[in-house]
Amino acid sequence: MKTSELKPALVLAVLALTSCSGPITTDALTPKEPEKTEASAPAVPVSAKTAFWEMYKAAHAWAPDMLPLTIEAKTISGIANQDGKAAMWKATFGSLAKKQYATFTYSIADRPPDIHKGVVAAGAVPWAGPSQQALTFQSSEFTIDSDEAYKIAMLKAGPWIKEHPAIQLTEFSLGAASRFPGPVWYFLWGDKKLGFYQIVSASTGKALK
Asked: Are 202 and 182 in contact (CB under 8 A)?
């Protein structure tokens, strides 16, 4: 897929959602004194589901009616994301009862002053509810983990990557929009000027055009 065609509604919705500003309160939700054995073990990237369920528990405590909107891979210094796994993930959950969506992050390591290991609640902002470009989805629809989706995407992206070996994966995220039958994974290598993207169903693992 050429980047001249790179304007999927899902990506635009994720960017619009995560760029909103509002009252932010940061609150670390994991124990402040990790076990001593953890300090000696090197931190390794984790799949989306590993991070998602930790953030899901915190989100459910915030609003029992919440539903996931997005989950995005992030990077932290010193630990490379690889094979569909990331050192840090960010998820958003919407609550119709509260008329808000809240953002949570999960990191495998501390990077003071902004990044803290474990789950951190980054605050909630007003939310008008789901739209055609940014839908909520059921956690039961999220069956294909990020590392599995990555392998599927690579089957499609492989020929292009061979022609552009220096270009890296720059974005991968999960979200839902009305144009898709359920939540989908979005992978982008490079950028809009020179890049390749692939969409993979998070429910079936099918590569979508």
From this structure: yes
Residue with tokens 């990020």: 146
In a domain? residue 30: no
DSSP-assigned beta bridge partners for residue 53: none
17, 164, 196, 209 from 6: Cα distances, Å: 18, 18, 8, 11
Q: Give me 39's structure tokens.
A: 């300090």
**Residue 35, domain member (yes or no):** no
- The alpha-carbon radius of gyration of the chain (Å, integer) is 17
Amino acid, res. 87:
A
Total domains present in the chain: 1
Phi-psi category of 114—alpha, beta or left, where left has phi over 0 and alpha has psi -120 to 50? Answer: alpha
Is residue 157, in this structure, part of any structural domain at all? yes
Which pLDDT value is given to residue 37? 47
Please give the Cα distance from 91 to 58 (Å, whole number). 11
The answer to whether residues 176 and 183 touch, using CB atoms and an 8 Å cutoff, is yes
Residue 31 lies in a domain: no
One-letter identity of residue 123: G
Number of Cβ atoms within 10 Å of the Cβ of 108: 20
Which pLDDT score, from 0 to 100, does residue 40 have? 55
167 alpha-carbon distance from chain centroid:
21
What does the pLDDT look like over 161-186, one tens digit per residue? 999 999 999 999 999 999 999 999 99
Give the span between the Cα atoms of 48 and 63, in whole angstroms: 21
Q: Which domain holds residue 124?
A: 3-24+44-208
